[in-house]
């Protein structure tokens, strides 16, 4: 006896089988969402509610969150907290009559399946981090004052220990001096010349150190320096 030919995918029967396969895949995705120990064979109430929200089964008019909770409690067993895939389809059938009023039971159920096919858990309900004006003000280093301002450079990067402690400066310059290290550069870049007045001062110092009296009419006012 020859085997019966399988139904083509574009036939009504084949289409229903394909939809159920996509439906079961969506069920498993939502069933394991947020639970690493879940097998995907059973779905908790919170995951059921998320599926109904993410897939827009809840429209806020014909179907509300209350309707979703009531159907879940009605379908699941009394001593369990989850529903199986078969119970999931029963729940969809219950809600389809409310969600798609004016359609036949079969049409309403197919429309319900279309809302779920190929869907997965989204980020609906996940709180996004938004910086409030207060937080922005408290974290803007350019507006810091006093000792807090000294802890960061112009780019907002922390200075580390130098920004928290007063490190001793042994350079020999007074605090706040902005030309440290420039003297040697100027002296080395210029030529120091000795004029007659300088020679006079040198000779006077030599005679005094030798215990001799030394007189000269020019005086000390002729001592001068010239730096080119």
Automatic annotation (TrEMBL):
Keyword Cytoplasm: yes
Keywords on record: Cytoplasm
Subcellular location field: Cytoplasm
Entry-linked Pfam families: p25-alpha
GO cellular component: cytosol; microtubule; microtubule bundle; mitochondrion; mitotic spindle; nucleus; perinuclear region of cytoplasm
Key word Electron transport present: no
Biological processes, Gene Ontology terms: astral microtubule organization; microtubule bundle formation; microtubule nucleation by microtubule organizing center; myelin assembly; negative regulation of tubulin deacetylation; oligodendrocyte development; positive regulation of myelination; positive regulation of protein polymerization
Biased composition (Basic and acidic residues): 147-165
Positions of region (Disordered): 146-165
Gene Ontology MF terms: GTPase activity; magnesium ion binding; protein homodimerization activity; tubulin binding
Family according to the record: Belongs to the TPPP family.
Protein's name in the database: Tubulin polymerization promoting protein
Species the sequence originates in: Ficedula albicollis (Collared flycatcher)
Lineage, opening ranks: Eukaryota, Metazoa, Chordata, Craniata, Vertebrata
């Amino acid at each position: 006896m020859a085997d019966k030919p399988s139904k083509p995918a574009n036939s009504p029967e084949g289409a229903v089988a394909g939809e159920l396969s996509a439906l079961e895949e969506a069920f498993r995705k939502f069933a394991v969402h947020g639970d690493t120990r879940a097998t995907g064979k059973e779905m908790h109430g919170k995951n059921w509610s998320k599926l109904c929200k993410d897939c827009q089964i809840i429209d806020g008019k014909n179907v509300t969150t209350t309707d979703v909770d009531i159907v879940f409690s009605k379908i699941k067993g009394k001593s369990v907290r989850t529903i199986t895939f078969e119970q999931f389809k029963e729940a969809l059938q219950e809600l389809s009559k409310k969600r798609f009023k004016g359609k036949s039971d079969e049409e309403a159920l197919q429309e319900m399946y279309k809302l779920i096919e190929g869907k997965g858990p989204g980020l609906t309900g996940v709180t996004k981090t938004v910086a409030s004006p207060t937080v922005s003000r408290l974290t803007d280093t350019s507006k810091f004052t006093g000792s807090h301002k000294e802890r960061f450079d112009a780019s907002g990067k922390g200075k580390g220990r130098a920004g928290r402690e007063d490190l001793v400066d042994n350079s020999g310059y007074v605090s706040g001096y902005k030309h440290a290290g420039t003297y040697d550069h100027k002296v080395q870049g210029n030529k120091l010349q000795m004029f007659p007045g300088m020679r006079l001062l040198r000779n006077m110092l030599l005679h005094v150190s030798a215990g001799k009296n030394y007189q000269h009419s020019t005086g000390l006012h002729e001592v001068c320096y010239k730096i080119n």
